[in-house]
Amino acid sequence: MKKQNLKNNITAIILLLSIAGFAQNEKSNTVSLNEFYSKIKSEKNPQIIDARGPEEYALNHIEGVVNFNLESKDYAQQVAKLDKTKPVFTYSIGAGRSVWLANDLLKKGFKQAYSLEGGIANWIGNGKPFYANSKSKLSLAEYNKIIADNTTVLVDIGSKYCGACKKVKPVLETIKTQYGENLKIVEIDLEENPQIVADLKTVKVFPTLILYKNGEIIFKKDGLGDLKKDVDVALAK
Predict the structure, then answer these.
(1) Do 107 and 166 lie in a common domain?
(2) What's the structural domain count of the chain?
(3) Are 179 and 185 in contact (CB under 8 A)?
(4) What are the φ and ψ backbone dihedral angles of 88, each rounded to 5 degrees?
(5) What pTM did the predictor assign?
(6) C-alpha–C-alpha distance, residues 109 and 26, integer Å
(7) What are the pLDDT digits (tens) for 106-151?
(8) What residues act catalytically?
(9) CA 129 vs CA 170, 201, 225: distances in Å
(10) End residue of a domain, out of 132, 163, 178
(11) From CA 92, how far away is CA 113, in angstroms rounded?
């Protein structure tokens, strides 16, 4: 019995170390926007992969990229077109699919593969060059007028392809019911308003929540968190 318990304990330890090692590799492949951008600029013909779905890619993307991910039917053929000796740069809506892709490329013998922290949200949200198939419905001037014309404004910036962003919507409805006309809520999605997301130069991840009072930002949240509580606390001051 003791030998069996010892064997089980050793197996558990090995499993934990394997998971930790995998997590560490996953983390080490994800780099900041500045590092990602710098590495791309240092390459004559950078290999950049948009790891989102084709519908997402069609709406907006970094210029000069190819679009495929682990679930693409022609995944193997697309990978075969890449140069294993040169760095590969991947991104998605956040850092999910792109991290998995970067890790898979490393397993396949690629020397370097990097995933962008914050994904396309971070890239466009900090004013880096991008392609969009339509103009923003909301301009920066119109955005600033909304902030100026209302005492308190809660801005929700996200994407319809972002899972966490969808969880914000029911919370916003609860906040809207509680505060009514005393709080203006503005919802901005990347698909319909890419340029305003870029112009604000403040988005690092989706969703991003910004609360203004008298034209000043009183809090900014990267990610959902306890949004309702944070709004209540901020407006109670």
Answers:
(1) no
(2) 2
(3) no
(4) -120, 135
(5) 0.84
(6) 16
(7) 999 999 999 999 999 999 999 999 999 988 999 999 999 999 999 9
(8) 162, 165
(9) 33, 12, 30
(10) 132
(11) 14
CB count within 10 Å of CB 125 equals 25
Tokens 């890790």 correspond to what residue?
Answer: 103
Domain boundary among 75, 110, 132: 132
The residue among 119, 128, 116 whose CA lies nearest residue 199 is 128
**What is the chain's Cα-based Rg?**
21
Nearest to 57, CA basis, from 135, 119, 137, 118? 119
72 token code pair: 């693409």
Phi, psi of 119 (to 5 degrees): 60, -150
| Type of residue at 105 | L
Co-location of 128 and 145 in the same domain: no
pLDDT tens for 141-185 read 999 999 999 999 999 999 999 999 999 999 999 999 999 999 999
CA 153 to chain CA centroid, Å, is 23
Q: What angle do CA 132, 227, 125 make, to 5 degrees?
A: 20
